Amino acid sequence: MVHERGSTSRDFWKLASRIQGTSAQLPGSWNSLPTELLVQILRDLPVADVLVCKRVNRTFHTTISASAEIQQKIKCFDANVIDGRSSPFDLVQRMSRVSAWADTWRTLQVTGQPMVLRPNESPWNYRSGSIFSCQTPSNRGISFYHLPSPQRDILYQQWTIPDLGYEPVFVCHDYTQELVVVATNNDDAFGSCARFHLLHDKTGDHHHEASERYLQLPAAIPRVTQEDHDLHIFGELLGLVVHVDDLFDITSLVISTHLLIFNWKTGTLLKHLTGDLLSHEIVFVDERHFLIPFAPQTLPGAYLAVVDCYRRDPDTHDEMLRGAAQEILLKHASLLLQLPPVLPAAHVEYQIVHAMSSTGTQGTRVRPPGRPFYVDYAPRLIVLSILIGEQMAPADLNPLTLLVPAPAVLARLAEAERTPGACAVLPWVAWAADTRAMHEPMEDICAARFLTSVYVDGRRRVTVWDFASVPALLRDVREPAEGVSVPPPEPLPGEGLTFEACGVLTGAPCRRVVSNLEVPRDRTVRLYEDGFVVYTQDPRDEVQVYAI
C-alpha cells in the first residue's frame, strides 16, 4: 500500500473535529467557511487527507469535485506522478496528459510499430529512469539513450561521452542528479587500486557537487570486475558490494565480501563491512538507511537489517566504520525484519537472498523543464529473490520471490525510531501483510511496476504487476477490464512444507498482461518510465522500443 509523503496536517484535523463536535451549537459552520479558504486548505493537504475530506459533507464534496487543481492533484496521486506546474502546459492539458498516460498503463495495449535502434555497441547494461547507457565500441567512452514518451512530448535522444581517457570497468548512472559513476582499475609502480570517478553525465567533466574527483577504494579491494559487484546511488549515498579473491593464495577458492557505503558528495567512507552476507546486493531505504539480508549468529533464521549509515557505536560512541558484518549490522541496525521462518529440518536454511530495488531517491531531483508531469519514484519496490535448501544440494533449492513496497519499510522504520538508540526486531507475522509473494520470477522493476512473463499456449506474454495507489486499485476493482486482475490474498507458497504457518500475504497489486505483444523466449525485456525495451545479448541485433 502506497501512502503519500508529507504532513498529516494534524492541526487542521484538530480544528475540524472541534468544529464538527460543536456543529449543534454552530449550525452551518462548514457551509459558512469561504470557498477560497476551503480550497486553499484542501490544496495544501496530502491527497490521502483530501480523499477523506471528500466524505465529510456535501460542501467538501462539491468543493473538491469543482476544483480542477485539486482533481489534478488526485489524478497525479493515482498515477504515481508529479505535476509539471512550471511547464508551458495549462492545467487542462496537464490533466489530459496524466489521464491518458495512466489509462494506457492500465490497458497495456501496444499500438503501432516499435522504434528500432541499432546501437552497434555492447548490450545495454544500465538504466536510470528512461535513459539506458553502455560502453562505446572503443570501450573508452559511454553512450546514453534517452527513450521517447509520446504522452510527455519527449523525443528520442542519443549522446556520447566519446573518450574518458581511460577504459571503464562498469558504470552506474543517476539521471536525476546528472551523475555517472565510472569504475576503473589503475595499475602503476606502486601496485593496483580501484577508483570511482564522479562525472557529469552530459559532459564527462567532474561533477560539480562532488568535492573529490574520484573515490578511492580501500587497499583490500585492489581491483573490481564487471561480474563481481553491485553498485547503487541514492541521493548522497553510494553503496557497493564487491567480492574479492584472496590474492595471497592463488590456489585458494576463498573469496571475501566487502560492503562499502560512501557519501559521494563529501568523499567520506561511511561504512566498510566484511564477512559473510546472504546477499550480493545492497538496497537503500532512504538517504540515511540501507537494507541488507543477513543471518545473525545470535538470532534464529534470516532477517532484513535496516542499518543507519551515520549511526555511531552505542557503547563507545565511535564511528566504527570498519569491522565484521555481523557485529556492525547488529550494533548499527535500527530495525530487523524477520524473513519467513523455515520449518526445522536438518541442513535446510536460507542460502542466498538477492535484494533489489527500483531506482529512486528522496533528495532534490533534477527535473528537465517543459514536461506536463514527472514519474514519482517515492513508491519504489524492493524485491527479494530467496533460495532456501541444503547447502550441499544446490539443485534442490526452493525459490521464493517476495515484493515489498519501500513506503511500507519506511513506515516500519519510523515506528522503530521512536525509541532512539534501540533496534526493533519484528517477527515475520508482524509485517507479513506488507509483502506480496510472486509466483513468477522478476525480469525487471521500474518505479512501482514489476515486470515478468507468462506463457499462454506456449507463447510468451509480457506481464506487469502494478503497485498503484490505493484509489487506483479500488477503481480497478470497481471497473474490471480485460487484462486486469486483482488476485485474492493467499498463503505463502510452501507454507506447511518449507515455512512455518504464519499468516497470509495481502496487498495484492493489479496484474496487466500485454495481450497483443508476443516476445521470443531468447529476448530480454526491460521496463522504462514510458514503455518497454526488447533486445538480445548480441550487440549486432536490433533493439526494439515500445513506447506506450
TrEMBL record:
InterPro entries: F-box-like_dom_sf (IPR036047), F-box_dom (IPR001810). Residues 27-74 form the F-box domain. Pfam families: F-box-like. This is F-box protein. It comes from Phanerochaete sordida.
